[in-house]
Design goal:
The protein is of the alpha/beta class and about 425 residues long. It has 13 helices and 16 strands.
């Protein structure tokens, strides 16, 4: 990572986990718990956790202003939360009250209504906080209040009552003035391609580069953001280059989409916390140490409040770091397994039991990584077939760059209304820009 790039900017870790991302919040918890019971017996005190990072470690990084790869000025904690586990730990509230550039957010598990009407496991939502500090048991801090978290899980569950509904949670966070983003939205869920791109186009911020997912996903997401924003700014696409799915996606962007700002997230659980950072140019005369999360959130909310304002294809935030590789993923998995072994060693010193647990855990995590890579390959293949943003970007025709044919078959609309796309026309574009 280029050290010079980070200097003179506000560098923020916008997605990182601590030991509050417990087994109860992990999707692998049930499988690994059953494996431990098979190896050590039902009722064994051995437990599993996907993260052991103490909040103090990340707090010290903020205080020191430095990570492994360069300056770090702000950290937004985003521990996993779901219906079964969504409390802010007291020690986290104390740390955030002590250190104002440490904000307490959350990564919220959600379910999304797909295009066929069924609910599927959807992308997770990163919820960061609002303009002003909230009150906690140790004093004011930046981030989510426990009250807003409780309101989410009381009022925004899906119709089956299983997890948060993606759109209901998004709407409540917007009403409460909480900055929010979609987390690695191409990966880690069960939505169809069309349902995925639809929900991405409706969020003000999405995570394009994530330290836990591949560069291929990052490239596709970055291209989709540019395509989405260009269409909302008045560009058009040749109708002949769009599949039926592509026409529906463009129609959804025109009717329901908004300008998207890309973010990047570390998603670190054990080490290498600043492998990915989001950076922002500092206001004139300001030093990074003087900036509070509320000022960052204020700027982000100003962008989100104007869903169709076109501020150029390049937003105010920069992404620096590297996407996941097989080597980095295996390093993460190995680190988590070793930490679990060290933590539980006093509970069981039988080497045979531990060898069996290690083998079972490696198998489960390897199987999870295999499924993740397989689903990712399928998703990328679908994108290339149905709506490849990388291929479509060079085909964009921006306003004023080409002569447009008359379209007498479409009624005239007043400014601000969304035009229904005529798939018979030579070009398709949004009418309200």
């Amino acid at each position: 990572m280029d050290q010079q790039v980070r200097n003179g900017r506000l560098n923020i870790i916008t997605h990182v986990h601590t030991d509050a991302s417990t087994a109860e919040t992990s999707e692998l918890n049930d499988r690994i718990s059953r494996a431990i019971h098979r190896c050590a017996g039902v009722g064994s005190p051995i437990t599993w956790s996907e993260c052991f990072t103490p909040i103090d470690q990340l707090e010290q990084m903020v205080v020191d202003g430095r990570g492994d790869h360069g300056p770090v000025h702000m950290v937004l904690i985003t521990d996993h939360m779901r219906r079964s586990s969504h409390r802010l730990p007291d020690r986290h509230l104390a740390a955030a009250a002590r250190t104002r550039r440490l904000a307490l957010g959350a990564e919220l598990a959600t379910r999304t209504r797909d295009i066929d009407g069924t609910y599927q496991r959807g992308p997770e939502i990163l919820a960061f906080g609002g303009r002003h500090p909230v009150q906690g048991s140790h004093g004011p801090y930046y981030g989510l209040s426990q009250g807003i978290i409780d309101e989410l899980f009381e009022t925004c569950l899906d119709e089956e009552g299983r997890e948060l509904c993606t759109r209901r949670a998004r709407d409540l966070l917007a009403r409460r003035g909480v900055v929010h983003a979609l987390s690695h939205p191409l990966d880690g869920h069960a939505l169809s391609l069309e349902g995925t791109l639809a929900i991405i186009s409706e969020f003000p911020f999405i995570e394009t580069l994530n330290g836990g997912y591949s560069a291929r996903s990052a490239r596709m997401l970055e291209a989709f953001v540019q395509l989405n924003n260009a269409l909302l700014a008045g560009a058009s696409l040749p109708a002949a280059q769009l599949s039926p799915t592509g026409h529906r996606i463009v129609r959804h962007i025109c009717e329901h989409g908004r300008t998207i700002q890309p973010l990047s997230g570390s998603d670190a659980h054990s080490h290498d916390f600043d492998r990915v950072v989001t950076s922002m140019a500092l206001p004139d005369g300001r030093r990074p140490e003087e900036m509070a999360p509320g000022e960052l959130f204020d700027r982000m909310l100003a962008l989100a409040d104007s869903p169709r304002r076109h501020a150029g294809l390049v937003g105010p935030f920069g992404s620096e770091g590297r996407a996941a590789t097989l080597r980095s993923l295996l390093s993460d998995v190995s680190s988590i397994i070793m930490r679990n072994a060290r933590t539980n060693l006093r509970l069981c010193r039988n080497p045979w039991i531990w060898s069996n647990i290690a083998v079972a855990t490696l198998f489960i995590t390897h199987d999870e990584l295999r499924q993740r890579r397989q689903l990712q390959r399928q998703r990328i293949r679908q994108l290339k077939q149905e709506f490849d943003p990388i291929r479509l970007l060079p085909l964009l025709q921006h306003r004023g760059s080409v002569a447009r044919p008359a379209r007498p078959d479409l009624p005239r609309r007043s400014a601000g209304q969304v035009q229904t796309i005529d798939t018979r026309a030579q070009n398709v574009r949004c009418a309200s820009c």
